[in-house]
Amino acid sequence: MIKHPAFIVEPWSVRECHLHTDVLAQTESVFALSNGHIGLRGNLDEGEPFGLPGTYLNSFYELRPLPYAEAGYGYPESGQTVVNVTNGKLIRLLVDDEPFDVRYGTLHSHERVLDMRAGTLIRKACWSSPTGARVRVTSTRLVSFTHRAVAAIRYEVEPVDQPLNVVVQSELVANETVPPPTADPRAAAALEAPLVLEENVAARNNVCVMVHSTRASRLRVAAGMRHEIEGPDGTRVECDGGGNVSRVTIATRLAPGERLRLDKFFAYGWSAKRSRPAMHDQVVAALAAARLTGWDGLCAEQRAFLDDFWAGADVEVEGDAEVQQAVRFGLFHLLQAGARLERRPIAGKGLTGSGYDGHAFWDTESFVLPVMTYTYPRAAADALMWRESILPLAQARAEQLGLRGAAFPWRTINGEECSGYWPAGTAAFHVNADIAAAVTRYVDATEDTGFERDVGLPLLVATARLWCALGHHDADGRYRIDGVTGPDEYSAVADNNVFTNLMAQRNLRAAAETAVRHLDRAELLGVTLEEAAMWRDCAAAIFLPYDERLGVHEQSEGFTGHAVWDFANTTPEQYPLLLHFPYFDLYRKQVVKQADLVLAMHLCGEAFTPEQKARNFAYYEALTVRDSSLSACTQAVLAAEVGQLDLAYAYLGEAALMDLRDLEHNTRDGVHMASLAGAWIALVNGFGGMRAHDGRLCFAPRLPQGITRLTFRVRYRGRLARVDVAPDGTTYRLLHGSPLTVSHHGEELTIGAQPQARRNAPPPFPDLPVRQPPGREPTPRRPGDLSRGLVVPAEQPAEEV
Amino acid sequence: MIKHPAFIVEPWSVRECHLHTDVLAQTESVFALSNGHIGLRGNLDEGEPFGLPGTYLNSFYELRPLPYAEAGYGYPESGQTVVNVTNGKLIRLLVDDEPFDVRYGTLHSHERVLDMRAGTLIRKACWSSPTGARVRVTSTRLVSFTHRAVAAIRYEVEPVDQPLNVVVQSELVANETVPPPTADPRAAAALEAPLVLEENVAARNNVCVMVHSTRASRLRVAAGMRHEIEGPDGTRVECDGGGNVSRVTIATRLAPGERLRLDKFFAYGWSAKRSRPAMHDQVVAALAAARLTGWDGLCAEQRAFLDDFWAGADVEVEGDAEVQQAVRFGLFHLLQAGARLERRPIAGKGLTGSGYDGHAFWDTESFVLPVMTYTYPRAAADALMWRESILPLAQARAEQLGLRGAAFPWRTINGEECSGYWPAGTAAFHVNADIAAAVTRYVDATEDTGFERDVGLPLLVATARLWCALGHHDADGRYRIDGVTGPDEYSAVADNNVFTNLMAQRNLRAAAETAVRHLDRAELLGVTLEEAAMWRDCAAAIFLPYDERLGVHEQSEGFTGHAVWDFANTTPEQYPLLLHFPYFDLYRKQVVKQADLVLAMHLCGEAFTPEQKARNFAYYEALTVRDSSLSACTQAVLAAEVGQLDLAYAYLGEAALMDLRDLEHNTRDGVHMASLAGAWIALVNGFGGMRAHDGRLCFAPRLPQGITRLTFRVRYRGRLARVDVAPDGTTYRLLHGSPLTVSHHGEELTIGAQPQARRNAPPPFPDLPVRQPPGREPTPRRPGDLSRGLVVPAEQPAEEV
Predict the structure, then answer these.
(1) Of B67, B472, B589, the CB nearest to A68
(2) Count of beta carbons in the 10 Å neighbourhood of residue B769
(3) Which domains does chain B have, with CATH numbers?
(4) Does residue A489 carry a catalytic annotation?
(5) What pLDDT digit, counting tens, does each position of B762-789 carry?
(6) Complex ipTM, two decimals?
(7) B526 phi-psi bin (left φ>0, alpha ψ -120 to 50, beta other)
(8) Buried b (16+ CB within 10 A) or exposed e, B622-643
(9) Which residues on A lie below 8 Å from B419 (Cβ)?
(10) Second label for A739, Cα 20 to 30 Å away, from A702, B112, B558, B670?
(11) B267 within 8 A of B172, measured Cβ to Cβ
């Protein structure tokens, strides 16, 4: 009963040594390639078998009606769903008239490697057809970071021991059949044949272009491909197609030692406005540029781009090879999600799957951007510029809801609210403060005053106005925000959620301060000094419910008076609770899906004393079931802060391995961007103790047993700092930029190019006993465990090789 | 710009003197006939024009999927919708080859009269065809109170001034086309052709029978008709049909002074179990019985049944003819809804329309049964026996929700939950306590110990267990019920709703007391003395939130800390608020849709001091917008109790005239049973000050300016009491039964067959200033107003006559 780990643990790559068709959908997500504009799931070149075929373009969606058993005012009438666009990665192979299909014949070996330095997915297969014809197939796939519209595949076929007739068909296919959706509400709605053909032409030079549009959202997509082919004399190439297929067929006869090589360049463009001819020409031009660069050129640019990224972002972990791999895997996917955004959102699953319908949530601002801000800040700016671009929609939504300012959607692609369940959607107004916090964080980290003025200020002003519309003063002069939903989705529509109130407080203050810094711009937005004063007053009076008897903050007012969930009588199969218990029961009890008050203690740490943090952490730890992937990393950060280092380490493991181990059983729908960010957060904010605000970069490094060294890089205000944490001390050095004063366990020190070492402070707090709900304890982290990577169920027979 | 009142005010009838086709749907509801088993809307005999064609059988429904934009655990997957069954009331007329249709030719006169003593709807029309052929048509329609399965129509045609060829077609038609549904969530889902034909035969004796079944709910309905025809010699009768139509055609030639008379008997039966032949035979037998009784016999039985009802239920109001008519109209419709229930529910609209999909709600137990209990108690018993019959479904629902005991559905036909929005459905658990209160009330009023043991005890035990599952003790030992929704639908999912907690308290106590009275039966239900003790303990510790600063009870915990709704900036067109503002905003503010705490003060009055009642009433009065028809009568009761007699009178008017004036603009979908009950409640509980519990019948009579005398009858513990309230004093008399001790303004007196007079006490409370939200003041009641009845919009041209 050996459990097969799907992936080999290596520092710079994710390697699958055998093909496990039972976890195909999961590996397609893990091996997805993207540049933030184009996303290709790691589907096999030949298209079948597949878990979920997927080719996505950022913000290319179709509308679908949102039905309600009982309608209500302000409910969104239509939702948006990411579209599986024209598949350009299809390359089919016939060997002596037998189609290459791993389900038939004999697969002697099969390896896939995601190379995080090269930015490529390499596949090597050796296969015999049912009639015994044996070939070696190698493909290398990339989605270019430097050519935003372009992806490419180098595909090579070699006979092993006998001459073979080989036919390769390189295709563009639209409206692929996708499997029916599962009942899991976190999966996507299925769209059947969402693309309407507008054009399918094979032009000269073997360039094929197809243009489609969507029915309801009226978006147009163009896809094109062209090829460089290298084969023995007599290799014949034909181009045909029709309907939703476009095909280049290459036929040749290969002797052992000979090889057919195909470099396939494919390009995409989409627009809500541009004409069919314009879109056609756009992809043809992208293909011309790609061909000019050539396969080798694309690969070289890809590596250079990544070298630059890793130089400023890499995290090195000694003593735990799994976490080392996982944190790089996370950073790589974050970069893929954000590299070439250009004012488009980062979805919860990036462009790696259709989970959550391809929607972007607050996760982006609260988990993904805090990493990007200090490692690849351009992506943070891009994502926030997208928020600024949808401000008119958010303002219209606020007006529809009878509010002022802007009410950003809980989930969206195009900026309009897609949430069909308001208590966990519309009511979760904290998304607006999360956006404001991301603005403040980005501006603090970059000192990008142009951004602050043009993008940040409008966002801060609009969100501050929302909080003024949402709150009111009570008879005691406290500023209350009633009836909203915080991050914990097992509570909803409660009064004075501490997280929301603290984040709103910071939102209001930031708006006032930023408006005063850009008075001329603020005036154009109608901001008066009176309004700014009101923001400060509301912020100062914000109400934070606190239970004196228990000595803890209440997640929301009245929370600690509720019955505690009956954890003792909840069985392991009943998690996640939301699939087994009604919201009614979850909402009225003390049970926490994901860090809420604990997240407030991370993001607004200065509002709590160390003693409050320790007491609150212990209290909420006993209630938190982590039915969300957005929880473990935050718990890691606070566990580290209160000195529970082993616990923090366990949570780090959970956050880091969410997708490589498919811990929540839905990696099939795409990887979890926020949890991938969580590995960095747990390491850097957790064990590095990094916090930054108001120009101050603070560290409180402390390592758990098992991690022998942690080295990370942080970009801050034009500097690139390298922090090297050892069990007993930490060494700071600037790799770039002028000297910077930072804080180490509260001690100020100015760091420059010369390394400066300091001893780490011991855990400062008396150890409160901390426990989790029974059965929900995180798996203790024991580096060197044999099991690693995505686990293939043992009851499945091992793949024949 | 004269506004046309649709109805003439008469003490015992509702008379429409002209046909107003623009309010046809409303008059169809007002003129609906029913016996609680069969319901016929007041559609014109000839079927067209119509507002909404409707023929209903109690509990005959079809299933439809309930869609959700975002699914959740425990959401009902299918809803039930009342079916418009085979229409048996169709009688078409051709006069010299021209169809009688009021939209063509000339309608010289048209009158419809609902006779509340005869139990009939009489229609008289005089019409000339486009070619000038003039006829007089008279039809009298009844749904028999004594023959549960039978309805009948006497239809007469006479030429006025010249001999005419007359053809009458009497039909059964299934799957009539119904108009598309409106966007109003309170209307019904439209079912297209819900009936599948199983049989359509014309047997001997001109008996036609059609049997249909529904696709999903698998219910079978049989409809049959037979005729007695009286016409001149040469009158020919044919019977034909096919598909979903069955037709008897009568052709004759009438000279002036001659008449064609048709007595149409039609009968219905439905079953989930019985076979097609059994159902066929069942309606044939019902028709045979009806024919044996004959038209005159049916009419005589109908009148005798009503004479008996009115003798025990009539309310006489002097000084306000409109209210006099309205209270009788209300009682008449209540009787129609409940007379022949036989363990079926009373729906929110009875069987008068498809509003609310034909569902039954808590309205029945909280508004309708409190009237029936003291006027026609058999209907209350029947409705509660229906609840007992669906107890297994309610227990299964509780189990599904992770609770114990029974969780009765918020809205249903067959006993399964149909609510597609849980915060205003599932979370409104008070429905369970409302059922328990109805049991307690019925048993108190009737001393029906058999019912108490066999029906009441299982209901009380199952609901008490629910409250034990829903509540918990807090650190102060208070028993809390968190996260539930009270009657006010502008708040939801709140902690410790006072109404719910008080009703739960009474539910728990009643269960304990009843269990002790029937220990043997209780044991069979698994009740131990320990469990009963726990019920008492929970009841004793129940928490009632009270705002010390304001000196008022909080509707729910924290309610008075919320922002007050911005009434000043809410325009008249923005009511009802739920159609113009999101639930999000309504829930988080102090705004009350309908009496909630005020209803608690009515139903659990002994939990409040007189001073609390006055203060609470004033506080909530300023927040209550009455966007529900379930509010005015309760406000009338409390206004009367706190001495605001003019205000009580205004609310009486609103409750009483809800349907006769279409005050909420949805009488088209059926009349409002609870509001119709509200006229009685406002008069008897309000101005009569009647309360009853624990064998004590109390009165505190007091009349407003305008009502010069109020006389009502109350059935209580085998007695029939007559209470005659004059401005200065009240006279009590038993019409039936042994002497009874009652209370008059706190003074005990024993009443018997001899009248006993007492002076009325003056209003006992200091007048607190009471105001309503601006623009939401009730219309002051000025008896003798010219406007009366359903008002036809003045912009419509008067109907040509």
Answers:
(1) B67
(2) 7
(3) 4-289+301-311 (2.70.98.40), 688-763 (2.60.420.10)
(4) yes
(5) 887 666 789 999 999 999 997 654 444 4
(6) 0.90
(7) left
(8) bbbbbbbbbbbbbbbbbbbbbb
(9) 69-70
(10) A702
(11) no
